[in-house]
Amino acid sequence: MKKIELLLGISDIILNSDDTNTTLSNIAAYVKDAIGSDVCSIYLKNGRRLALAATEGLSENAVGSISLGFDEGLTGLTFSENRYTFIRNAKNHEKFHYFPGINEEPYQTFIGVPLKSREHEFGVLVFQFRKNKINTDTLQKLLMAVAAQVSGLVLRHYLFQQDEAEKLDYSERTEKGIPLSSGIAMGEPVMVLSKLVEKTHDNISPEEELIEFKNAVEKTTNDLKELINKMEVSSQEIASGIFETHLMMLNDISFKRDIETHIAERRKSASFSVRHVADKYIRRFRSINDTYLKERAQDIEDIATRLLEHLGAVSKETNLTDNSVIFANRLTPGETATLDLERVSGFVTEKDGVTSHTAILAKSRKIPAVTGITNIHHKLESAQSVIVDGYDGVVIFNPSQETIEKYKTKMTAKHTQPEGRDIACQLVPLKDGSMVHFYANISSVLDSEKAGQFCAEGIGLVRTEIFYLRQDVPFTIENQIEIYREIMRAFTDKHVVFRLLDIGSDKKSAYEADEDNPALGNRGVRLLLTDYKHMLDDQLKALITLHKTYPNIKILVPFIADVEEFFKVKNRAKVIAAELELPLPDFGVMLEIPSVIYQIEQMEGECSFFSIGTNDMFQYFFALDRGNPMVSSLYKLDNPAFLSLLRRILERAKSINTPVEICGEMAADPEILVKLIEIGYRDFSVSPYAISELKHHLLNTVINT
Predict the structure, then answer these.
(1) Which of the two residues, 359 and 561, has the higher pLDDT score?
(2) Which H or E run contains 274?
(3) Is 377 an annotated catalytic residue?
(4) pLDDT digit string (tens) for 118-148?
(5) Which of 357, 377, 547, 696 is catalytic?
(6) Which of 547, 607, 663, 696 is catalytic?
(7) pTM above 0.70, yes or no
(8) Known catalytic residue: 663?
(9) Long-range contacts of range 44-47, CB-CB < 8 Å, 24 or more positions apart?
(10) Are residues 387 and 185 in contact, defined by beta-carbon separation less than 8 angstroms?
(11) Concatenated DSSP letters for 629-657?
(12) pLDDT for 51-77, tens place per residue?
């Protein structure tokens, strides 16, 4: 039989297989006949031994009962030396190992071929002949090609061994995490998958979801076949082999059956099922003590990503019901930008820090949030309803009626904090005759409207990157002007500070490259002055153009580490303003990297104001990852050393007669706010939803008596 016909025959067996064991048996029988051997056996690595997994020619009873050490017998010799092994008069070889009762007696020639990928062995493909066989170059190449194809199947075998049936627990379960935002939420769990929000409730049509999954598999298969053809045409054999492996994994009957079971029997959506099953196999691969097999977890991730894309997982359209509790591994600004926050009652994540984007958003909107809940996908499998306790950092799955009533009582007891426009609109004079001023941090047009309702004295920070991240269309000059004009409507006569795009770190679009240490990487002004020069120009043009109508607009430059970065941005703005024949808005600097503190005097006369980004400043001052829940307990913003740093910043800013405000969640803590006022700060930019609470606290403390 010609080589190509033999390999195509094996491919047909693999692609039409129902399970691994049957496929191995079918391959052994097919190859035995095709090669003309008397025996074909397949041994697979099982712990520290090689177990007989399939045979055609030896006793069927030997399968599952015969095993060898890695250096035992001729099969062990092949495995340990990791090479093609041809031995005539095999029974006379010193390594020959005899197993009685499996019909091994009459065979003279032994051929062993390692089953492996790259340098990692999975087992041995064995051929035995009654007569002494002649070794030829053609035979060796043919058997090596056969072994390479079988290796792909064996790789699948390690991945898709069936687990025992997973038992779903619908009883009440309590998980302890880390509180991010206080409050109590009750509602329906919703999982964020990539950029797709996928409901986990059983209000879906399994029949429709199965059709969607089948279509996604077909489209993904076509994608992979097209890639394989392209790689083969361009002689990129290694890349072609990778996609061949992806194709075999995708079409594995066990993988598909597992996903279909989640859809049909557990009434989960196709997207949720793909993500759940893929994560289960990824965990299994990573638990195997073999470097190559650990790396195959990425293959599963790639397959899952392709499937989710064809299932609409990159869509930014989300449909939430009221009281949706959002679950995610970690929420990015781009993902939260797509959510209808009016319908979100709580957040639960696995890997967010106390000053992460999720925490800031939750606190600003007074949405209860908890992080540090591990294996979220798995725990949502049987979750039909949840309670999020942001006071104690507790999440309760499937709460009983008794627990629900208990938390309703707790919610009523906690709802004693006065809120509303009456308090928010009161002035806050101090004993020394000065006033405390509250501005608003906003991430949406709704936030700006709320800021107006709660009598914010202006907008201290417009997070323009959030508007960019939620866009399905290019962030053009016209598009920006339209959005910014909406924000300005509520603040036509009070200053509004637009921060230039602060992209990077935890704020990325789908187009930004991954970095090993993004918090210290190409973000903020660094990105604007390099890869995103065109976006910097567009944003400056939009803001300078709008400044003609709204002279109260100010521009804030983020993530300055060296004063030269600020001057480069401002000089670029001067050129653009001259081209447009328009005046230049006031420019300010975001103080969030300690190095810039010692350059404050160099900005005298050029920088109109400073805004201290306390979250990042604390992060870089203490080398403490703000997004890591493992160090959340160390994130104490009232640390004496940090307060001393803030005092030093205020002194330096005053020395050049430049106003400075506190921007960030630090000032949203009433107790810390008092300490900041005692240091000498008077201007604070906080969530518009926190203004009434903060003013209530100040008006009722000794600071005003």
Answers:
(1) 561
(2) helix 270-287
(3) no
(4) 656 789 999 999 888 889 888 898 898 888 8
(5) 357
(6) 663
(7) no
(8) yes
(9) 44/115, 44/122, 44/123, 44/154, 44/157, 45/79, 45/121, 45/122, 45/123
(10) yes
(11) GGGGGG--TT-HHHHHHHHHHHHHHHHTT
(12) 898 999 888 888 888 888 888 899 999
